[in-house]
Specification:
heterodimer; A: about 375 residues; alpha/beta; Rossmann fold; seven-stranded parallel sheet; two-stranded parallel ribbon; 11 helices; 15 strands; about 15% strand; globular; B: about 475 residues; mainly alpha; Farnesyl Diphosphate Synthase; steroid biosynthesis (chain B); Squalene synthase (chain B); Trans_IPPS_HH (chain B)
Chain lengths: ~375, ~475
């Protein structure tokens, strides 16, 4: 698949969740790379992470409201939809279902009726994640884990939505879809990964390491994931131009799913230590306490009981032990081959940018308080 | 004769001693040289091979007969070139034309060179270089062409360096210069050997289509030597660490060796090691293209030694004080593991990659890049030798909530189906056996007697002697 240099315009692009963490990075990259593109952002609330570019319009709306979505599509008439909106991880099951599954179905239906050419869905790498099995260089041929086998209902709903998106491909024949499965996204504006790690440093938790730290893990800098989404859009639009010719299987992007990471797996605790160093930690490696995985699992279990009685959450839980001692990394060969993807920002630079963002934000807040 | 220090060392490292013994006792060369059939001049060539090479002579001598001679001569020719380039007592006017024309010199019958300084350890090779020329002219023309081409390019590269005053005073400047230098002294050797292997039919021709792989083979070995020999080279007034790297940490090259700069020197050494380590996955990829065992051993042994050497140099300040080496026991263990198959060599690489990563210092400027490079090696190994099987989806995971609910309902239904089925079978059996008993009873069967007997047997079995005679006796009289 040969993708030419970036064209100035990708037409009219609707980005759901465009004020969220990943969504607003996609908006920014799109403004920067394809400046003539008309961008419409749909989000529940559009007061955060706004772009100052005049090519971006903001629309408050709820993807679970089918009628509202329908009229929005009639108004905007998008050529491309990038669907990054997702339920908050800590929501209730009904919300996961409503937003991730029904919301996606509403968007698909509206897009099919409005003559959208390309629809890119942000799925999750966790859809193949089974708590019992480690993932070593896993690729897209691994089966999804859903239903009763999937302990996280959120993940199950992402998988159902992904399937619905892929099934809608080429119905009608001019409607092309694909799905991106990113893993471990971090960067400026991230609310999960980096802030939690910086907090752990502030609490003095950098002196502990659980397990032997030989487990590789995929972390992905947000701009690379945004880049991958735009490559997918370009590839679908390229295929759309060739209609009704269907590309060869080896080049085909529509109806396909892609793992997307930095392609630079590192040992779990190395990533954490790089973040801590960036945040100011100078603890020598020799002072780190190593807790055996089994021992930590036992202690975590005990702490969970004790804190449960006290009505609190401990600093060490069994889930954290598992998360930090598991090998979980993916092969992104398919994205490299078919989308021409390779990371544009290396992992170390991503960590520097992400942590600096947190520190600068804290500094600003301190100054505000001081005034 | 082992030194007392090594005796003490191996007393406390019996595992390593075991490796030495195993290697010495059990190692059988894949091919053995047949000295009796060799002419005197060729024997003299092998004599020089032993003299001039510490590490390569053993592996060369075990090579497949097809390539044994050509590779030995290739080595001696490059060694001759190197001996002229290295010798600072030879004036540049003498040196340059020889370096630039070496590809023709190796065809001149009776050519010898006696102008090396008396302290040059390999000078005798050049004094008797006529034996090399004589044997070189006997090998297949295709091999001659390859060796001449490499000798020409390497000689010209060396002449350029000899002419470059800047290089001689200040050493290597940029990282590009450094890799170019390594290309001339090692990358070209990788290319020459690969072409010989492919020409001899002992390696996959596809290796020639991926030139970066053979380049990495040479670069990896040469860079590791340059890292390890920094002190020795300093003492010989040579510098191969590129200024672009060390100047990030210290102002003067000599400052690397000052004890107060320990941490800065270690940071510089990690960047050097990172640069070398980024070639490791290419080397494994290259090894996958070798078709013959002796060639595999020849290529794999130095690579395994190199990654083990990187491990002992990593985060080790001793490299700035003395020559750091892997122990003989470790070397033998590595040779055992590198003379079998690619998977074992991958295990060696993974083992040392993890040892390096475990020493990685979070406060080193290259910390995360080193971790990424280690991860890259591990991921590459995983891609050629997957350690886990892809789970098979026997019951096909549901793809929507409706399907999940349906699957659940079906499972539930299937469970009740099982229960009903069991009940039916049980009921049928009950009715059939019931009616049989009933018919038998109608026909006059005495179940009461049979029951009593059963009771008796039961009691006898449990060991209690009860009133048992009546039932048994009456049973008999009935019959």
């Amino acid at each position: 698949m040969s993708v030419q240099g970036p064209s100035p315009s990708l037409g009219k692009v609707l980005i759901t969740g465009g004020c969220g963490f990943l969504g607003h990075h996609i908006v920014n990259l799109l403004v920067q790379r394809h400046p003539a593109t008309q961008i419409a952002v749909l989000d529940l609330r559009t007061n955060l992470n706004r772009s100052s570019s005049s090519t971006v319009s903001y629309h408050d709306g709820d993807i679970t409201d089918a009628d509202a979505i329908k009229s929005l599509f009639a108004q905007i008439k998008p050529d491309v939809v990038i669907h990054t909106a997702s339920a908050n991880l800590i929501s209730k099951n009904e919300v996961h279902y409503k937003v991730n599954v029904e919301g996606t179905q509403n968007l698909l239906k509206a897009a099919q009726e409005a003559g959208v050419k390309a629809f890119v869905y942000t799925s999750s790498a966790s859809v193949i994640y089974n708590p019992k099995i480690e993932l070593k260089n896993a690729d897209e041929t691994w089966p999804m884990v859903t239903g009763d086998d999937q302990p996280e209902y959120y993940t199950a709903t992402k998988a159902y939505a992904e399937t619905a998106v892929l099934e809608a491909n080429r119905t009608p024949a001019s409607f092309l879809t694909c799905a991106i499965r990113p893993a471990g996204i971090f960067g400026e504006g991230d609310v999960q990964l980096l802030p939690k790690m910086v907090t752990a440093f502030r609490k003095g938790q950098t002196k502990f390491q659980v397990g032997d730290n030989d487990n590789l893990f995929d972390f992905s800098y947000v701009e690379n994931i945004a880049h991958g989404h735009l490559l997918a859009v370009q590839a679908l639009l390229h295929t759309h131009k060739m209609l009704p010719t269907v590309p060869l299987d080896t080049e085909r992007v529509d109806g396909e799913v892609f793992f997307l990471t930095n392609g630079q797996p590192v040992y779990f605790w190395d990533f954490a230590r790089a973040v801590w160093h960036e945040a100011g930690d100078r603890l020598p490696l020799s002072s780190v306490w190593h807790l055996g995985q089994d021992f930590a699992f036992f202690v975590g279990g005990m702490l969970e009981w004790i804190f449960w009685i006290l009505g609190k959450t401990p600093n060490l839980t069994r889930q954290q032990v598992k998360y930090s001692t598991f090998t979980r990394y993916y092969s992104i060969d398919k994205a490299k081959r078919k989308l021409g993807y390779s990371p544009i920002v290396d992992l170390d630079e991503g960590v520097r940018r992400g942590v600096r963002y947190i520190l600068e934000k804290e500094e600003r807040e301190k100054q505000k308080k001081g005034q | 004769m082992p030194s007392p220090m090594s005796l003490i060392y191996y007393t406390f490292h019996p595992q390593e001693l075991r490796s030495i013994i195993q290697w010495k006792v059990w190692h059988n060369p894949v091919h053995e040289r047949d000295e009796s059939k060799e002419p005197e001049t060729l024997r003299r060539c092998f004599f020089f091979l032993d003299k001039t090479s510490r590490s390569f002579s053993a592996v060369i001598k075990e090579l497949h007969p097809e390539l044994l001679g050509p590779v030995c001569l290739f080595y001696l020719i490059l060694r001759g070139l190197d001996t002229i380039e290295d010798d600072m007592t030879i004036p540049l006017e003498t040196k340059e034309p020889i370096l630039r024309n070496f590809q023709d010199i190796i065809e001149k019958d009776g050519w010898t060179f006696t102008e090396n300084g008396p302290n040059e350890k390999d000078r005798q090779l050049l004094v008797e270089f006529n034996v090399v020329v004589e044997e070189f002219k006997k090998i297949k023309p295709a091999y001659q062409t390859i060796i001449k081409d490499i000798a020409k390019r390497m000689g010209n590269g060396m002449a350029d360096y000899a002419n470059n005053a800047e290089h001689n005073i200040n050493g290597v400047n940029t990282i590009d210069d450094y890799e170019l230098y390594c290309h001339y002294v090692a990358g070209l050797v990788g290319e020459g050997l690969t072409r010989l292997f492919v020409e001899g039919g002992l390696a996959n021709a596809a290796l020639l289509k991926r030139p970066e792989l053979m380049e990495s083979m040479g670069q990896f070995l040469q860079q590791v030597n340059i890292i390890r020999d920094i002190k020795e080279d300093l003492d010989d007034k040579r510098r191969f660490w590129p200024k672009e790297i060390w100047s990030k940490y210290v102002n003067q090259f000599e400052d690397l060796f000052k004890p107060e700069n320990k941490h800065l020197a270690l940071n510089a050494s990690s960047e050097m090691i990172l640069t070398a380590l980024s070639r490791a996955d290419d080397c494994l990829y290259y090894l996958a293209g070798i078709k013959e065992q002796s060639v595999f051993n020849f290529c794999a042994i130095p690579q395994s030694m190199a990654i083990a050497t990187l491990d002992i140099c990593f985060q080790n300040h001793d490299i700035f004080k003395k020559n750091v080496k892997i122990t003989k026991g470790e070397a033998c263990q590595l040779m055992i593991e590198s003379t079998q198959n690619l998977q074992l060599v991958c295990d060696v690489f993974r083992k040392y990659t993890r040892k390096i990563h475990q020493k990685n210092n979070p406060h080193d400027p290259n910390f995360l890049r080193i971790s990424m490079t280690c991860g890259k090696i591990e991921q590459f190994i995983e891609s050629i030798f997957p350690s886990q099987k892809k789970p098979v989806n026997e019951k096909a995971s549901p793809v929507s909530v409706e399907q999940a609910a349906k699957a659940k309902a079906e499972a539930q239904e299937a469970k009740w189906d099982m229960i009903y089925m069991g009940l039916t079978v049980f009921l049928t059996l009950f009715i059939i056996s019931g009616s049989m008993v009933f018919i038998a009873w109608m026909a006059g069967a005495r179940f009461d007697i049979a029951l009593d007997q059963l009771k008796d047997q039961w009691r006898a079995l449990m060991g209690s002697s009860g009133p048992s005679d009546s039932g048994g006796a009456s049973g008999h009289s009935e019959l």
